[in-house]
Design a protein that fits this description.
single chain, alpha/beta, DNAb Helicase, Chain A, Rossmann fold, 2 domains, 19 helices, 47% helix
Amino acid sequence: MKDLFEKGLPANLESERMLLGFIELGYADLDAIEAVLSPDDFSLEKHRRIFARMQDLHRRGDSIDYVTLFNELKRQGEAESCDGLGYLTDLTNGLPQILNLDTHIRIIQEKSTLRRTIFACQHLMKRCLAEDGNSQELLADAEALLSKLAEKRQPHGQWLTPTEVITSFPGGVDAFMSPNRGGTGIPTPWPRLTSTLCGLQKGDLVLLAARPSMGKSVAAMQMAHYGAKHGHGGAFFSLEMTKEALVRRLISAIGKVDAQRLRSGMLNVEERGRALRAASEVEGLPLWIDDTRARTMPAITSALCKLRARHSVEVVFIDHLQLMKSTGRTESRHHELSEISHALKHLANELEVAVVLVSQLNRDCEREKRRPQLADLKETGSLEEDADVVVFIHRPEQYNRQDESLRGIAEFIIGKQRNGPTGKLPMCFVHEHQKFGEGAPGGTGDE
């Protein structure tokens, strides 16, 4: 271990010198380099300062050569710390005829990432030695730090023309212009919702929001089961209900078995047969449930990555937002929820999955006994801005339980869709089987 530390921090000074020399000679596009490198990516302080001053000159529209660069460093009081004019002229000596800019940029990035990882590990090691927090908190912080390092290495500035976007689409121009019937995304159990949303799209954050007891978890599990039944692997994070309770609900819905009788174990022979057939139907489906209360984003990301290493996952369900928390200290709960929603949107994009997030609404719509609207999300951070789709669940019977005429009436309200229409879809809720169906009450809610 001592020998490793004696080697010094990872760095490649020759690549740094060559890249700076190429910029000084005007052989390199500084705009493209700035998209992937910052001054902090250089290992030597003088190289960081030289690169920063190059950026200043470039932003002002001034030419970059050793004379203008020296004057800029001198103006900032940094010329002496960068070894003066002699070092700037030496940067261009002995440069190869073949530039290989991309190679040198990758080398600098790689060494920079290794150094950042070392610093992060040193910080965590100090916290562990000082016993600054319990082991669970320290592990969560470690995952968050490493996740940020990985995020920094994501490619940027990959510009494509419309033609390149079309031709790079899986299946080419024909697939781009003629997506499969029912939409290009993952289907839902309800054809009208699937048609309106064009399915659940990879990279989208879909919000399923309602007041308590409206059936948010029921709808989410229906969507997860339907997608899995059609070959779309789903991961279901349940932060509230146990996996046993979720599966019982699923069996009740599939087998059309009274949910209360199934929960109490009071099934007759015929109902038991339907329940067993339903249990057989879900066997082998690509649907995985985690109820270990992974309440932080690093814990969810870690669990999801482990699952994706073994199975194909296309859609992720999280039930629900208000039970999640961030790993560090935040100014307020509003700010904490904003961080979580940003992280979930990033997760959807990075892993190319659809993320369906269940969320509660504030009490306004319940107090006023009205349909929910986007304004009811005001206490959930920046969720309205981060979400690509917002679907509200509304069941008026929950506001007036004495009115039997309202029993089973429900609506799915598409309050926001970034790439499509909004509006209301008439639905029904089948109490006995704990499931939603399309149309008026009295239907079976069959998928």
